[in-house]
Amino acid sequence: MADTPSFKPDPHRFEVSKRVLWIDRFMNSFIKIGGVGVIAAIFGIFLFILAQITPLFNGAEVRPVGTVEFAEGEYAIFGIDEWGELPFMAGRDGVFHFTDLEREQTTDDEKVARRYTVEDGAVVVGERGQFTRQVFEDETYQHVKYDSGAKQAVFSSARGTVRLVKVNYRPVFDESLRTIEVELETESPYQLGEAGQAIVDVDVLEAEDLRVIAAVQQNGEDSNALNLLFFKAGTGLFDEGGLTLQGSVDASGLVENPVKVRVNGAGDALLVLDDQDQLHYLRREYDESVAGDSGGGGLLGGLGGEEDSDEPKKAPYKFVHVQTIKPLGDRPESKIASIDWLFGRASLVITGTDGEQRIFSSYSQKEGGLTYAQINEFPNLEGGADRFDYSRRNRGFLITHGQNVKLQYATTGVTRWEDTLEYIPQLAGIGPKYDLLMFSDGTGKLNLSYLDDPHPEAGWKAFFGKIWYEGQPEPQYTWQSTGGESSFEPKLSMMPLIVGSLKGTLYALMFAVPIAILAGMYSSQFLSARWAKIIKPTMEIMASLPSVVLGFLAALWLAPILETRVPSVVLIIVLIPTVSVAFGFIWSQLPKNTRTLVPEGAEFWALIPVMGLVTWIGWELGPALEQALFVVTDEATGKQVADFRLWWPEATGTPFEQRNSLVVGFMMGFAVIPIIFTIAEDAMSNVPIYLRSASLALGASRWQTAWRVVLPTAAAGIFAAVMIGFGRAVGETMIVVMATGNTPIMEWNIFSGMRTLAANIAVELPEAAQHSTLYRALFLGAMLLFLLTFTVNTIAEVIRQHLRGKYKAVSD
Amino acid sequence: MKLEDLKQRPAGEPMVWLTAMGLALGTVMVVCLLWVIFVNGITVFWPKPVYQLELDANSTHRVSAETNVFAGAISMDREITGADDGTREYQFFVGNKDIYGFMYKFVPQADLVESDRTKLTQPKDIMVAERLEYGNAIFYPVSMQLGTNEVLRAETPDFTTKLYALVEECNERRAKYTALEKKDIGRINHAIRKIDIQIKALTANKTTKEVQADAALTAQIDAKEKEKEKWNAEYEILAKQAEEMREAQEKDSLTYRLVTGEEKTLPLGDFVHIYQPNQFGFGDKVGFFVSQFWGFLSENPREANMEGGIFPAIFGTFVMTVLMSIAVMPFGVLAAIYLREYAKDGLFVRGVRIAVNNLAGVPSIVFGAFGVGFFIYMAGGTIDRLFFPDYVASKVPYFGTGGILWASLTLALMTVPVVVVSTEEALAAVPRAVREGALACGASKWQTIQRVVLPASAPGLLTGLILAMARGAGEVAPLMLVGVVKLAPELPIDSVAPFIHLDYKFMHLGFHIYDVGFQSPDSEAAKPMVFATTFLLILLVVVMNLAAILIRNHLKKKYSTSAF
User: Under a CB-based contact definition with an 8 Å cutoff, are residues A520 and A680 in contact?
Assistant: First the structure.
């Protein structure tokens, strides 16, 4: 018996194996970390998009680099090449001083910030060192100014001559090493007006195929003279390709006492300031008398040998006075201090002695012809502008008064950057790539600063405010991200896109909400359980139809059908509900044994043939309705034509397009119906059964129960359903991309298209360069969509949860 | 009387009928839409009879300037728009785009000669040919040139059998050389491209002089160049083989005459399929239908995607969906298990749940934009900088551009909420008693989840996955931004190492619909193709959704009966 097995229990039998515990502990933390991680990652989307758009709302950053020392002297102009390597300063004597800045060659693309070698705040001069070039020796000119856009210095003299000096920068590639070379190019001086008339003010337009020199000149004791020289692209016999002198135009007399003159970008308008602070807009017109005078000799006139050989040729133009503007008319004590063009020579910056800064721009009027008006105004400076320069990339400009400097953006009216320098800048300029600022006290010290302002055209006002763009008659909301010309200003207003999104959504909901809610009500209250089993999955399949399919059908199948049959569609939309109700009424009046042919809960089957018939009737009657109501007179033939497509624009003044909001609303409604249906149905069928039973027991009919008891109880849930439908429709992309013309317009016309936020991203993001303003603006659109749908859905979800709680409370 | 009336006629019956209208309208519209797609999609492959017709002498709808006669298959039969008397017009598919310049022609019924208006003539021996270029041709054969001197007239008794056999032979040869070009030559091109990028990276940022001065570098480059030579030599051999086969395609040719009189001679290698639709019996038609449909599924697209098959699009959609599922499943399930089993139910978790739920409602294009910014530029750019400096140096982005990996991840992110929500539902449906039973038996928490809860909720997980896949397969807007292309030269999975190319761009059924329907030069000619593709996509999505619904219903039943 001694070896009877002892039944001493294993003391460890209730212990869990270590391995299980370890795994359990590991899985515990793994799932927690993983779960939280996944959820955090999902919300990372929001943060990422936020990070993409924040730079849009930042101001400019300016960082001083150092000082470049030029030889001591009096300098009147300065400039720099596009690569920021070879700045120059020059005086009125025509001696150009260049300094070669050493630069570390960077491997990445040019966006990488340049790195000058800086020692003790001075930029070290590179291998080629400093050199000077003298382009003329004939005389010293009275004034000189430098147009950094055309890279051309304009010297003007007291004799009435103008000399142009072009600073041609050229990159020279030795394999991958790049250096900048410079060449100064000048022509012999041009005489304006009569010799000896000192030039007061001069403006030169230098375009590819056109050059206009306009000058205000002293004319003895009476009123100043206004003279112009026109050059045009090489039609001359000996000078193919270059600009040749076309002739002079004397525009004196149109404006009394001109003081300043500016030529616009097309060379067809002059803006002349008189001594009364009035700005005159003179339009260039073709002068037949001059053209007739020179006759056949017009081309060859310059060859000389004729009797008027010492008389300068006349260009076949004359000027007409169009408009007088008083830029500072409301400020009588202030005088105009400066007028300067912005990039593109369509807008003027006018400053007053009291510090006013106003932007004037031209636009075409409805009646035809250009006119100038103030489009923007900045807060006052301390006084009039001393120095001015404009950006060659955008509508930014640099303005100084005393020691104060400001970098402004004309379109949005925003000050990008401002500072007070330690000295009074005699020269101030923006680098050609809008990445450098240059200041000099005029004695030979050139101070360079990096300018980091990647998105000057962005900002709250640009995205959400009305902006008066160049060439537009009034402030507008416009989306137009790309344009043909280099001086095009991108217009990035979100408003047309938001309106487009809401428009599409509105029409979709107008179509979808009634159908979906009615269907939901029928399905939850009246439909027999047998059919519900088939109907609900059908609706769910409808929800899963890819939107690209709906878009394709909308554009290539539905749009062509609807285009010619709008009256039929209108008729069908009206007929179907009325006939359904009428049919229901008649049916309920029938004797009982007839009525039982259609059992309760199967009415919709009976309706299908009725609706088919009604649709057919509506379809066939449509043309007759068109004949009766939508008749227009064809202007060409005078015949009466019954065509809704012609009638609509005539009656409403809004266009009729084949791919319009009706088509989009119909197809997008299609995408939204099942969503609203499912949620609304859910809300109504979850209404506690005894509420319905009580109502029915009290003698209410099934409709009265549904209308008075179920609907009010489930109203919040139905509202939530509509909101979720809204969320889906607002972000729908493919249907809109395919079924509309994608034109960003701000109108609610049902027969025109639109561009939505979502479609805009799909259309433009593939072409947008990373981190460009457009790229970030598209992310702003994405953010708006995200916020909109997220907020709407959250509200809807909270309502639904609240409702669920309420039902629970009722049933407890 | 009054009471009776009340009993018989309950109030508001017409309004009930109005709500019935809503439901009827909704269901009828879905059915109609599916029907339109089905009919238009399926009839693309059904052979249509070809008619030979004559126009009135003064008709302005001539197909050819020379004659009033023409041949074609009816593709549309409709009432003339604006006509009140119900006169009809036909749209004929006349083919022969190389000669006529168009493929479709509208002809009013009234323009046909008297005899043709009532009965359209179907010539027995007219032939339709699918060609590699210019779409279909409709013609009468004249003769076949075999080799250089043998000519076989169309009147010869075994002409058609011989013709079909030779076309079949050409097809086989074409399959051979395309395989050669795609597989072997593709592999070589791949290798050469890689070497080129390495060479470019070696010489980047250096001047020729510097490179020449650096002996080690020159040696390296020479070695690479030698390697390239070797590949090139191999390429030459294969290219020659392919070229020989291509030449063989030109050996025999067919001369045919159009109904309108023009004659043309084409090498047999240019034909894909020749048939005589007017001689088809029902069996032939079915056979033709099946072979056409199979061709559509298995072939590569031709002629700007407007002809041929859509195999690369099907394959691309499939691979992308699978990759997406692999990415979405673990993360979605993980998050759901955390939310349902681990997190303490409170305001925070409720908030997270609502937010995750609502993320499913955020527009897909927002995810697309995120994919571009985050995956392509940020993640892709970083990967390129860290691991593929060669590509960065030669300015060819490797992962820093759209590709199937980024597309899958973008869609995975978009569908995570779908999976989370349905997994949570499935976990919640597992009765509490089952859990408690497991715990009472001594199982740890993870063991309970792993062995009891997850298996019980597997069908729910599957439902979530299927729903996510259906959504992913049908989504186009975000894909347009992150790597879908209209024509991908190579499939994302092939026989060239590393076999799965996550960086490749790919084709997609949904994008194919958009591209062919909207970007092709001739949208009328592209319509059948688009409808067929649409049909396929709808079939895919509907089947997936039906499966999900069935599984869910099954699940519901299971738990409603097995409740404790």
Answer: yes
